[in-house]
Amino acid sequence: xxxxxxxxxxxxxxxxxxxxxxxxxxxxxxxxxxxxxxxxxxxxxxxxxxxxxxxxxxxxxxxxxxxxxxxxxxxxxxxxxxxxxxxxxxxxxxxxxxxxxxxxxxxxxxxxxxxxxxxxxxxxxxxxxxxxxxxxxxxxxxxxxxxxxxxxxxxxxxxxxxxxxxxxxxxxxxxxxxxxxxxxxxxxxxxxxxxxxxxxxxxxxxxxxxxxxxxxxxxxxxxxxxxxxxxxxxxxxxxxxxxxxxxxxxxxxxxxxxxxxxxxxxxxxxxxxxxxxxxxxxxxxxxxxxxxxxxxxxxxxxxxxxxxxxxxxxxxxxxxxxxxxxxxxxxxxxxxxxxxxxxxxxxxxxxxxxxxxxxxxxxxxxxxxxxxxxxxxxxxxxxxxxxxxxxxxxxxxxxxxxxxxxxxxxxxxxxxxxxxxxxxxxxxxxxxxxxxxxxxxxxxxxxxxxxxxxxxxxxxxxxxxxxxxxxxxxxxxxxxxxxxxxxxxxxxxxxxxxxxxxxxxxxxxxxxxxxxxxxxxxxxxxxxxxxxxxxxxxxxxxxxxxxxxxxxxxxxxxxxxxxxxxxxxxxxxxx
Amino acid sequence: xxxxxxxxxxxxxxxxxxxxxxxxxxxxxxxxxxxxxxxxxxxxxxxxxxxxxxxxxxxxxxxxxxxxxxxxxxxxxxxxxxxxxxxxxxxxxxxxxxxxxxxxxxxxxxxxxxxxxxxxxxxxxxxxxxxxxxxxxxxxxxxxxxxxxxxxxxxxxxxxxxxxxxxxxxxxxxxxxxxxxxxxxxxxxxxxxxxxxxxxxxxxxxxxxxxxxxxxxxxxxxxxxxxxxxxxxxxxxxxxxxxxxxxxxxxxxxxxxxxxxxxxxxxxxxxxxxx
Lengths: 575, 275
What we know:
Function (chain A): Probably part of an ABC transporter complex. Responsible for energy coupling to the transport system.
CATH class of the largest domain in chain A: Alpha Beta
Structural class of chain B: mainly alpha
Strand content of chain B: under 5%
Order of helices and strands of chain B: HHHHHEEHHHHH
Helix content of chain B: 55-70%
Number of domains of chain A: 3
Keywords (chain A): ATP-binding, Cell membrane, Membrane, Nucleotide-binding, Repeat, Translocase, Transport
Strand content of chain A: 15-25%
Structural class of chain A: alpha/beta
Oligomer: heterodimer
InterPro entries (chain A): AAA+_ATPase (IPR003593), ABC_Co_transporter (IPR022216), ABC_transporter-like_ATP-bd (IPR003439), ABC_transporter-like_CS (IPR017871), ABC_transpr_CbiO/EcfA_su (IPR015856), ECF_ABC_transporter_ATP-bd (IPR050095), P-loop_NTPase (IPR027417)
Low-confidence stretches of chain B: none
Protein name (chain A): ABC transporter
Distance between the termini of chain B: 48 Å
Low-confidence stretches of chain A: 571-575
Radius of gyration of chain A: 25 Å
Number of helices of chain B: 10
Membrane topology (chain A): Peripheral membrane protein
């Protein structure tokens, strides 16, 4: 008989500040040594469920609980948050914000310090843990200076050092580039096998988590558990579609080809799925629709010529960057963390001065234009809306750029209302910003940029932290802007789905240089580029290989085109 | 700008001293400099500060901005002293040598100049040591030394975290101000000072909210890892006091005693070259 480590019985929870319960009627048992994935859209209660297990609920976020929760046969209310921290180790989503120590070693040592362990003993334990998370050579570094994946390993080290029985990962893939995310899942898998700990992963990126096998998947929506099953059963059901979670791309394409997915063919991984009976259908679907790849032609809007830049002398961040953006395009700018993507966007907006090279807009050099002058033509939407919002009221926020440019009141009112309508924010025009959701705030930042009528908009990680439904809504909104207003859009992103689904072209940066400038279908099927830029091969490519379709690039392109057609016919885009 | 007033290990002797030593040094040094008006002593301390600064290998650029800021305040302070008490020097030194008559009751005297020079000198003896203390002490180690001299570790840690977040806040400030500039808010010298102050305020609001987010996350992270569980804690970064530390502290105590003796020997805190 397996031993239960976490038991929810008829459990409900309501935050003190909210009217409706965030969790209702939860019955869930997790057994010792299991690896369980909890998926669900934003606001489904999956984070709240995790917080009940680590004690942030109710000790940090107060509220009312009903029913019964036992962790290792003990009542969390009696254990307290500190008692729980000996049983449950949590790796929070925001890896940047959770560092306490000045160096990697200190950060790992933090909980030992709080336990009053002697310094001599602590040194040994920390060194051992740093070895497990592969950070031995970084022990003296500042965690802030590390890459995204390394940062996450620091956080992981900080909980592993305590020898906890339960490891809880809150959206571990959120801030990682695709290759690093894949590696993180492999590391978690290794720790699971070596330590025999119980592992809980809260995520909405199903395909990326399933890169390594999990024992069970819990699906949540609206505070309830709607499925508690094995991955193969889940993927062959329609639960994902109902709850708004993205299914793996290879499954989607098989479904497009008219194949039936059943649990018996092991659909949980691209390498495990039995394709024998599906091959013919897929090949046929592909051959009926081999896409023509004609290059779109329009005039250049933004030209970057020989751009070089470094924050310090002798340390170049960008070297000899050359690329053009054409009018009306939607282009993706990709590359691993620290490849210089955000720096490049700052250079285009004039926040940083290049050491060499020229940027021109519509054939005219921008080099002597100030930040404010460039902002009329090129708008930058930052990743974190909180970095941009400075007014308490929505209307004032959007009007700010016009007010500072001394426009008349009538003109401001007219232009702001127009933009608010486009962005679907008109009904909120008298609201305070603080009452808006994250996605709405993000729209406000776009509205405040759009109101200046820029010809090009640059968006830094537009979909970071958004679930599938919000992702789709937001991207369809951008697509509409692009189609209807002709706004040229450049997006900096980690998201391979975004590249495939919404860009016509991708520029890939690695080591401060442009290493590719091509259609996403070509890039995500080219191993050399994928490795250099820390991207991940799309599972569609593997599907094509396994089915024996030689031109995988054409297959991926076909999938993209087909998918776009389905989306533009099938979904009613509301703005 | 991005690394203003943040600790970085340059590997000098000063860096290798324990945080406790540096804290004591800073406290006693400031106290001595505050008590005395003995010009000879202040000059001596000023020279010693410069030597220590040199030894620490800290680049002047790292402190240039803060130094300018302090100098501005120093000037305001000196002018204010003159406005409110133009004859202070005369009163102290019991003699009067007028250089020039300015206006009304305001006369410039040698004694007043000498007195204000002493005030400035006090600033200059403390500034290098204060800045060095911040720049050469690892914040966590600093927290452990505060804890060692008797402060509660929760307060010590709060201080350390504040120091640690200075560079982060600076980075956020740059990002936010860039975003505001892109919307047309001018923060350069082209606009009037009043408008500039107003525009900087526009940056502070987003900065405040992003800092609040940060605080929320960090306090959750700390609690989840058992911070505040016990009345005591140990420190990974604590440095043992070495022979050099004891040597420095002893020298410091001797200096303090000599300073007190010299200062009060003449029956007055002021060194008077005019009689």
